[in-house]
Design brief:
Number of helices: 4
Number of strands: 8
Largest sheet: 4 strands, antiparallel
Structural class: alpha+beta
Oligomer: single chain
Strand content: 25-35%
Strand order of the largest sheet: 1-8-3-6
Distance between the termini: 26 Å
């Protein structure tokens, strides 16, 4: 049985749950640099994963504006970045996370990421995949963003979202979360 973390078990969030996917391998597996079209929670059950995240604002620096049939994938090999071929990649800020059994990581919609299952015994994890509505101040442009297949719109969306953030960009880590998740985490803190 898989138990959803208590902070995620609230109606406001669970009504947007689309899928639960179980990931299993013998270790030493690595994804390519990509983004997903939903908000994901990755929970590690066994083994260890390393995750690299890249803000969608940096999409052009990871050369995401290449042919339509590759939407959501970067041509960059993250194991060995060819900075002569992709010089802008040297400027990208990487956010790193290590997941051990029991850890959960929120991977926001359109955030680029690489997931590496470290060598060793089996590596077991699951993702809860949500389709959360965009923040209220971006609703008018949500259709444009969702129907576009070019990273320029991802950059515009991320910059617009940040422009409405409370200075100094965010007050607490909870303020970075979608409203539904923020409400769930707050309600789980209340006795």
């Amino acid at each position: 049985d898989v138990e959803v973390p208590a902070s995620l078990r609230c109606e406001a969030l669970m009504r947007h749950l689309e899928n639960l996917v179980l990931w299993w391998n013998a270790g030493s597996q690595r994804s390519d640099l990509h983004f997903d079209g939903g908000d994901f929670f990755l929970t590690q059950l066994d083994g260890v994963k390393e995750v690299l995240l890249v803000d969608p604002v940096e999409s052009l620096q990871i050369y995401a504006d290449f042919p339509y049939d590759s939407y959501g994938h970067s041509p960059i090999n993250t194991k060995r970045v060819d900075v002569e071929r992709y010089p802008l990649a040297a400027r990208v800020t990487l956010h790193e996370a290590a997941l051990s059994p029991g850890d959960t990581l929120f991977i926001p919609k359109h955030w680029w990421h690489v997931i590496h299952s470290l060598p060793g015994a089996r590596n077991l994890a699951y993702t809860l995949q949500f389709n959360l509505p965009p923040p209220e101040h971006t609703l008018g442009r949500a259709v444009i963003l969702e129907s576009s297949k070019f990273s320029y719109y991802l950059v515009q969306h991320a910059l617009a979202w940040r422009a409405h953030a409370t200075p100094p960009e965010w007050r607490t880590p909870l303020d970075r979360l979608p409203r539904q998740l923020h409400d769930c985490v707050r309600s789980s803190d209340t006795p």
